[in-house]
Backbone:
């Protein structure tokens, strides 16, 4: 059998980023300013005038769903159909992941973390599709406390699938400081 490796070539890479933070810190605002956004809004939070104006200015569109299967169909369509959009935004993934956990708990039970295993398999399928997508991908997530020794809070982290940070080129915590939003 012949070797199949080839010499590496530079390719134009698309950004894969995770923005997380508390409510109202600017995650959505930052994300929808990327080129030609295709926003999948899972909380109907992007109906406000400030967001619709930014989406229109960037040449973007919005699809609202709180159903994981609808999200998967939409991502699959973005993968297989010709379109002009350059940035996929899922805002936020936290709500869909929590819904998957609840549905998995009902279907599989919670013994030995079975519900996490079932929900995580679906998220991993989504991640595999996102890797193949020739678009910038920005996922937003809520934040939650990060605990250290003796259950002391040592900071914040994203509230979603635990391995989500390994998927992205860039993981930013968005915070509000006075009237400004900053990314850490």
Residues:
């Amino acid at each position: 059998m012949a070797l199949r490796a080839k010499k590496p070539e530079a390719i134009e890479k698309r950004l894969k980023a995770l923005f997380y933070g508390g409510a109202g810190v600017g995650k959505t605002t930052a994300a929808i300013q990327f080129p030609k956004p295709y926003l999948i809004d899972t909380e109907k939070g992007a109906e406000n005038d400030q967001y619709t104006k930014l989406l229109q200015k960037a040449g973007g569109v919005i699809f609202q769903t709180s159903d994981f299967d609808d999200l998967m169909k939409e991502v699959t369509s973005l993968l297989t159909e010709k379109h002009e959009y350059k940035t996929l935004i899922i805002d936020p993934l936290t709500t869909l992941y929590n819904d998957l956990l609840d549905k998995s708990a009902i279907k599989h039970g919670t013994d030995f973390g079975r519900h996490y295993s079932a929900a995580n398999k679906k998220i991993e399928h989504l991640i595999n599709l996102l890797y193949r997508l020739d678009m910038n991908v920005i996922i937003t997530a809520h934040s939650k406390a990060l605990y250290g020794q003796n259950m002391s809070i040592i900071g914040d982290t994203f509230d979603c699938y635990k391995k989500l940070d390994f998927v992205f080129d860039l993981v930013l915590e968005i915070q509000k400081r006075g009237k400004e939003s900053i990314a850490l």
Summary: The helical segments are 27-31, 49-57, 68-80, 93-108, 114-132.
